[in-house]
Design brief:
Largest sheet of chain A: 5 strands, antiparallel
Strand content of chain B: 35-45%
Helix content of chain B: 10-25%
Distance between the termini of chain B: 13 Å
Number of strands of chain B: 7
Number of helices of chain A: 5
Shape of chain A: elongated
Structural class of chain A: alpha+beta
Oligomer: heterodimer
Largest interface: A-B, 48 and 37 residues
Helix content of chain A: 10-25%
Order of helices and strands of chain A: HHHEEEHEEEEHEE
Strand order of the largest sheet of chain A: 2-3-8-5-6
Shape of chain B: elongated
Distance between the termini of chain A: 38 Å
Radius of gyration of chain A: 23 Å
Chain lengths: ~230, ~110
């Protein structure tokens, strides 16, 4: 409504322009947070190093895991996919870099956290773990990759998957971990632990530190569960 | 659909751009730089009700003709979005993971009278 008049639809007096702008900005914030199922804006993130981000995206593209949309947007180059006429169900693509866990002379632990908001409301369509072998030892190096999940009942970890590899040369290995990540999505704190075990004295085949451009990561695609529609005749 | 001008009173689409830098969200939203939170506003008097192509299904158009014919039901109709598209967001979540999602029906492309 024009200034000083009342809205013909709801009868509320027109807001002064400044107050109207503030109200619209507050509405925009509430609307976006509600659709992302976030209680509030996330605290300041610790973004991954640009090198590891670009390496991860190139690796995913080579494997066809990332849709060009994510590649384009995450590389922060082009605009967003304006033509997305999705299925109407909200879809998510996640890129999660490993956090270093405990390690011994023959094993290394990596942790991947997934946001509760996404986990609570969606199902995993696809999840892939990417591991880069920086320096396999002489000949082929046996490596056991175990997927562990925190046991809701106590401090133990439950093995949800195990793969034995013979690492011949430096390079990426991609493992399908969809089922393991889906089983996490039923937990309050969806956190995946990956244990890499090598024979005594072989040393870790992974890059030396988290800021290395070839640091392990997981890429996952999830789709919101269909909202329960009640039909009434 | 019609975009609102400075003194539009009839049903139209009001453009409204939220710059994420202005609201201090540019540190966790990687792309895009803002959100076109357009909205519909303005009057929908009877003669605009149900004009084909303006948010009118056939059933609505017939119903509006009947309403328009009977002066007793002289009520206005509503100015609503007639076309919307998703908002694609690329952001850091609380664990600094990178998440991309398309939120359906977040951007109003055009408005019309029911």
């Amino acid at each position: 409504a024009a200034k000083g008049e009342r809205c013909p639809a709801c009868g509320v007096a027109a807001l002064a322009p400044g107050a109207q702008r503030d109200a619209l900005l507050a509405l925009a914030k509430r609307s976006i947070l509600a659709k992302l199922r976030l209680p509030g804006r996330p605290s300041v993130p610790q973004p991954p190093s640009r090198g590891s981000l670009l390496t991860a995206l190139r690796t995913m593209l080579r494997d066809g895991a990332a849709t060009p949309g994510m590649l384009r947007d995450a590389a922060a180059t082009a605009g967003m996919s304006q033509d997305g006429r999705g299925t109407g169900l909200q879809e998510y693509e996640l890129l999660s870099f490993a956090e270093s866990g405990s390690s011994t002379s023959h094993s290394v632990h990596l942790h991947f956290r997934f946001s509760q908001e996404v986990a609570r409301s969606s199902d995993i369509q696809q999840a892939t773990l990417y591991l880069f072998w920086a320096s396999p030892g002489r000949g082929s190096q046996p490596v056991t990759v175990r997927l562990l999940r925190a046991d809701p009942a106590g401090p133990n970890l439950t093995v949800t998957g195990e793969t034995r590899l013979e690492v011949q040369r430096p390079g990426w290995t991609a493992l399908d971990i969809g089922a393991a990540v889906q089983s996490l999505f039923t937990q309050d704190t969806p956190r995946l632990t990956v244990q890499l075990e090598v024979p005594e004295g072989w040393g870790s085949p992974l890059p030396p530190h988290p800021s290395h451009s070839h640091w392990p990561f997981v890429v996952a695609r999830a789709q919101a569960r269909t909202p329960h529609r009640l039909r009434r005749r | 659909g019609v975009d609102c001008g400075a003194d539009s009173r009839m049903c139209c689409r009001q453009e409204f751009f939220v710059d994420f830098k202005e609201i201090g969200w540019e540190d966790w939203i990687i792309q895009p730089e803002g959100y076109h939170m357009n909205y519909c506003s303005g009057l929908c008097p009877l003669h605009m009700a149900g004009i084909p192509g303006l948010a009118a299904s056939f059933h609505t158009a017939v119903l509006n003709r009947i309403k328009a014919a009977s002066a007793a039901a002289a009520v206005d109709s509503c100015c609503v979005p007639t076309q919307r598209r998703p908002l694609s967001l690329l952001y850091y979540d609380r664990d600094s993971n990178i998440v991309k999602t398309d939120i359906p029906d977040m951007i109003v492309d055009s408005c019309g009278c029911t």
